[in-house]
């Protein structure tokens, strides 16, 4: 069983098919790791049923290889031992799906660009070209940087948030007032002595203070359940006004959703109410969108109405649709 299936099994158990307040899904991949998609017309229908006004959409910057040595076609990057590789055509898939929509429908989506190798010093050339070709991009991301098993399975140099190849991309974003959505683990798998990779994101936060960095899943991933996670996220938000976070993927289920932990994360959301968003983090298939977004309802109900609106909708709307 893949970890993707484990994640889906958790979502299936959710009671409810829509979010309790109108929402923006701030984190959804329109393709899976084979670069397959149900299409934005299907996503629109699912959004309407789930009480989602708008979505921040992007591809996946890597594609899973079906290796000759593997007898079965993979469906997820952890399906087998074959490598993943950087895949620029993911942005063309997003552009194709987006441009098929009617103009009113396009207003409900904020497409992000992500299909470049973040260790290539020429990545900025691709970014500038794609913004000239398709001026509709609303930001950069989700960049898959330090990402435990995915990092280990991706061919080539290991990506990290402070790789020099990304500095020109960040400068481009600062000039254009674009946000950057990053997956960057806070630490290594089962490393609980300290947050091993935190210095890398702090370096770019100091170096690029004009860039809004959205830290996907608060830097959490599988098998890094550090005992001081709540305090670390609190300290990072306090120290870095340019840092935003989303509560998505396994972070919400593993860290936030437990009955003991949920009130303190709700207090954090009130303290930093302008800098937190929610997202489904689905990949390519949208039949579970209603349940994926409804799982936040028990968290949102702990917040005053104005804070609910910010977390569920307004923050993402201001950043990507303003």
- Total number of strands: 10
Largest sheet: 5 strands, parallel
Q: Poorly predicted ranges (pLDDT <50, ≥5 residues)?
A: none
Query: How far apart lie the N and C ends?
Result: 41 Å
CA radius of gyration is: 18 Å
Number of domains: 1
What is the CATH topology? TIM Barrel
In percent, how helical is the residue content?
40-55%
CATH superfamily: Metal-dependent hydrolases
Question: What is the 3D shape?
Answer: globular
CATH architect. name: Alpha-Beta Barrel
Mean pLDDT: 95
What's the topology here?
Layout: H1 3-12, E1 23-29, H2 40-50, E2 52-58, E3 62-64, E4 84-86, H3 89-100, H4 103-106, E5 109-111, H5 123-133, E6 139-144, H6 148-153, H7 167-176, E7 179-183, H8 198-207, E8 213-216, H9 229-239, E9 243-247, H10 249-256, H11 262-271, E10 276-278, H12 289-294, H13 297-300, H14 305-320
Parallel strand pairs: 1-2, 2-5, 6-7, 7-8, 8-9, 9-10
Antiparallel strand pairs: 3-4
